[in-house]
Amino acid sequence: MPHNELSTGYQSTADTSFILEAACRNHDTRIFIDETDTNIRQARKICDTCPVTQDCLEYGLSLPTSTMGVYAGLTSRQLNKMRVAQQTVFVRHGTYAGYCKERRHNLPICDPCRQANTQYHVEKKRRRG
Questions:
Q1: CA 71 – CA 47 distance, rounded (Å)
Q2: Is a pLDDT exceeding 80 seen at residue 126?
């Protein structure tokens, strides 16, 4: 895990005390910051032996999406995919917009949104005449 405050200037408010136990603490941080294929392989070998990968993963996910580096054996691209997957989708239930959002995000469609969709199409058909 790179020492992010040094590498990017970003000051995280996350707890970083786990770094004292991290397998990477005595390794060159460039291995973790410069995401070349060779460095990623080296970083992953180190991460595979680390007792604090869960803490490192949580820390990596708390950083800005522009942060480069390997955290818990994951590249910045993989971390960004996880961030997107973890985003909460807010739905205004009982509305046509809610129905559309549930469809767009492959969420189960609730009854109030299904009814709002039906009502929307009934009204749309009525207006057309």
A1: 8
A2: yes
Rounded to whole angstroms, the maximal C-alpha distance in the chain is 75
Q: How is the chain split into domains, by residue range?
A: 4-86, 96-128
If DSSP states are collapsed to H, E and C, what string results for the chain? CCCHHHHHCCCCCCCCHHHHHCCCCCCCCHHHHCCCHHHHHHHHHHHHCCCCHHHHHHHHHHCCCCCCCCECCECHHHHHHHHHHHCCCCCCCCCHHHHHHHHHCCCCCCHHHHHHHHHHHHHHHHHHC
CA distance 53 to 65: 19
- Cα–Cα distances in angstroms (integers) from residue 107 to residues 93, 95, 104, 117, 121, in the given order: 12, 15, 8, 15, 21
Convert the pLDDT of each residue in 37-85 to its tens digit: 999 999 999 999 999 999 999 898 888 888 899 999 999 999 988 887 7
For residue 58 the two structure tokens come to 């949580």
pLDDT at 42: 97
